[in-house]
Each structure stands twice: as structure tokens, then as C-alpha cells.
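Q: What would this complex look like in 3D?
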Amino acid sequence: MAIAVRLALEAFDPAAELVVFARDHAQAGGIVSFLGQVRAGEGVEALELRHYAPLTLPGMEDLAGKVASRWALDGLLIVHRSGEMAPGEPIVLVAAASRHRRDAFAAADFAMDHLKSDSWFWKREKVAGAWRWIEPREQDHADLARWG
Amino acid sequence: MARLLFLGRLEDLAGAGEREWALAEPTPLADVVMMLPPALAEALREPKVRVAVNGMLVEAAGLIVAADDEVAFLPPVSGG
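A: Here is my prediction, written as C-alpha cells for the whole assembly.
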């Protein structure tokens, strides 16, 4: 079981990440991936993710450990951006490789719910030249609560 | 110098992401917060705001800040 967790301070290429991940886990029958990207439209000019170095990456590593102990996976990849991004740019990539697809789907879903509302990131967006912080949504907490 | 870090929306209230604070002696966090502008102080006291000292999450109640501590105020998160 190989775990790779990265806090990316610069843009990353999700397609290239997945090519490497699939090659590294050729024995896995299936790979599920989720890509979160900056939504274009609605007047959003930029998105910025902030992190707190002493906690953010260690927290992501703890999360990856939890995911790996909960599902039977061959591999797990988590890449999360910090910094300023333009519409269309990737924010987060989660990929889970496993023998059976259900484990991979659930693992990626669990990881994303925890990255969104239980990891040390703060998000703000720029609309019409003005930045505003994005507060966590009720739905994010409801999504998290599903996992008990 | 103690360093106070304000994450997320707290940065806007503080007017900067961090602020240095000269403490003559170890001081209760509640006293440090009381010396800050009222709107900021009120936001820092919200129970959902977590506190880390020198990179470790701690319980804010009863916390004593040493002269060279880094105290980070962490509001509710929003990632992904």
C-alpha cells in the first residue's frame, strides 16, 4: 500500500499525476480519481487557498493514513494546492487504486469530504476585483457527518 | 517578541496576517486578546476559532503565552 500526499505550492498537472499513479499501481484493478478545479464563470477572477504549514501537511498525512486503514487499497494519492489559482486550474486531486472499485470510490469520497471541511485550508475568491473569504457550507459538514 | 498569526477571514479583521507583540512576561492569552481591537478580539473569542501555539493545537482556555511564542488563530476551515 503506497501513500503519496503532497501540498502543492505551484500549479500541478492532474493528467500527468494520474498517468504515473496508474503505472505505479498496475496490479490494481481499478483507479478512482476526483479532480477539484476553480469554477469558471459567476464573475470569479481568482481563487486563493491558504494553509498553515505546521498543521496542514501533517493533517493531510493523518487523513491519508485513516483512509488507508479503512479501505483495502493498493495506493492512494492526495495533491492539494495552496496559493492563488485562475479559473480552470486544478485545486485538489485524489486518486485511490484498489482491486475492487467500491473500495476506491468510497476512499476517494471520504478523502474529499475531509479535505473540504476537516483540513487546514482557508479559501477566498476574487470577484470584481475584491477578495472575500468563503465560509464552510452546511452541506460540507453534512457530507462529513455521513462517515460517523 | 510573541507572534500572533491570523488565518482566513481573521486576517481581514486584524488588517494583517501577523502581528508582533512585546510581552514583558508570560501572559494569559485572554489578556493578550483583550488588548486587541474590539471587533478582532470578539472574533478571536468565538468557540469555533482554534488556537495553535508554536505549531501545536492547544486548548485556548487558561493558556499562558510566553514572550517568544507563535500563537495562531485558526477559524473554521474551507478546503477543496
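A: To summarize the key features: Residues 2-74 of chain B form a domain with the Ubiquitin-like (UB roll) fold (CATH 3.10.20.30). The interface with chain A takes residues 5, 7-9, 12, 52, 54-57, 72, 74-80 of chain B (CB under 8 Å).
Q: Very helpful, thank you.
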